Amino acid sequence: MSTPTQSRPRIVDVEEFFADPEFAHATVSPDGTRLAYLAPRHGHLQVWVRGIDEEHADAVCVTHDARRGITDYHWTDDPRWLLYLQDTDGNEDWHLHRVDLTAPDRPAVDLTPLPAGSRVAGVEVLAAFPGQVLVTMNRRPMVFDVFRVEVATGETTLHVEQPSPRRTYLPDREGRPAFLSELTDDGDWEFSAVDGPGRTRLLLRVGGPEHPLGVYPQLVTPDGTGLLLGLYQDGDDLRLVRVDRDTGTQTVVGAVDGQSLDTMGMHSPLLPPVVVESARTHEVIAARFVGDRPRVEVLDPAYAEVFAALEQLSDGVLHSVSSDDAERWWIASFVHDRAPGMTWLHDRVTGESRLLFRSFTHIAPEELAAVTPVRFPARDGLPLHGFLTLPVGVPHEDLPLVLIVHGGPWAHDTWRYDPEAQFLANRGYAVLHVNFRGSTGYGRRHLTAAVGELAGAMHDDLIDAARWAVTEGFADPDRIAIYGGSYGGYAALVGVTVTPDFFAAAVDYVGISDLANFMRTLPAFARPNLVNNWYRYVGDPADPEQEADMLSRSPITMVDRIRTPLLVAQGANDARVVQAESDNIVSSLRARGVPVEYLVADDEGHGFANPENRFRLYRAMEAHFAEHLGGRAG
Does the active-site annotation cover 278? Predict the structure, then answer.
């Protein structure tokens, strides 16, 4: 245990923690003359553009979406056009929009007017197709094909028709199919070289459950002669491996003993990418690995000097690194527990750097709590890793504890600035994240130990983590809460049904209550790829015996055991966990006269993106925990 070394900070407003960042996601234009980044306007994040030497006061807001913030944008090879992705009220049916940088006040043009239920899943600019972008989308509802879209006109041409939902061609830098990735019926992944139309040659086959969301990354080398894959090979750690196109020979490109590749970048363009590619050669020059703090390994010695210069700019860890095509101008942002979103511009020619922005300037780092990596064993001896955030300015003993459970479950928590953890610590709570079995990033054994263990050993890991905090003296055993979103929401509901007397309060945010219904209501195009995740780890609801087991692990079938004060939050347009998952829990509790607070946002999906909805959620959470755990309230 530790004692405070400074006074207790002010109660920071909910709005300060959960407003959109002041600045975020900066990139430099391919020609090195301009910067683009996200900043608020019209109450939401928009894309802004300014000259490389200009300040924000000189910038032009080039998007004007007054309904929902923009988080993903792309430069093109034409300095006139910029592209961005947007969905409708969180339904995840992403469309690709074009803005004219010479006339930024003109309305954006939707380049992908898709039918309902279809979406853009990828955008790539290739030198082989000037004036065009390759767009992956499911015009055929079940299959994501690749199209060439003429940026200036919107003219769309089918480029690569994928063979089936589970068979995907991987193109080279010329846009030609070079490899075939296939998910077999028994859950193996097969990778083949494409020798011509209809002619493939098997290179390797890898097992399934250790790749629940697929083999990641899958990158064709710039010369087309190799395929870079995230593989375990014969070990426990996920490595970056090159597979030779002619011989199938495997060569380890990036590996750290005892640490795995960090694959969180597959979930969102705002998360740190697993690899960094050269803008000039498109070769992979660095890779990210999981640890107590994330670790970026430089793989190409030619870039060691520039990465060393960038790493000196912060005591955090590199988040994202990008450059112009000539690789003179580099932008580096950093992961940090108390100084989020610090972003620098580095001139590789002069060696000079300047701070572009911090994402949040209204909260001083000294007002925030340090995030400490922790380790402890599960009851069966499996090593568990987590992160503990303790409030500033109070004794670190017998605190009310909030256990935050990440989503996925095939994801992981990491050392970083987490506004939820900082918000709760500011209110006086100890906050514990735990990478329970099934989390990615901690090796094959840790990942696959979750097979068949939903509401079983996966839940035991959470209880063991909370008990560790009690044993260490940090937490009061009578004031422990559980909170999570998506799978974490399911875990919160499991917590108050499987162990109804353990938690003093719970918050379920877009969580699963009925595993069988959840799987049946997933988008149709997602179901062919459930083999190694939900089917392998949980079961197939089409099989009566497996469905019965799934229901036995579903909170909805144990809802009569809930007596813990519960807050439920749901987006009405959630395409992953449909609103019925929350409605059914809430209606059952209310029918029994059990108090439950229920927030539904009509303009949200799988998580709340609009600031006003976030404010509403966290104000409710603040009041909920203050009433039942005794923390501070603003």
Answer: no
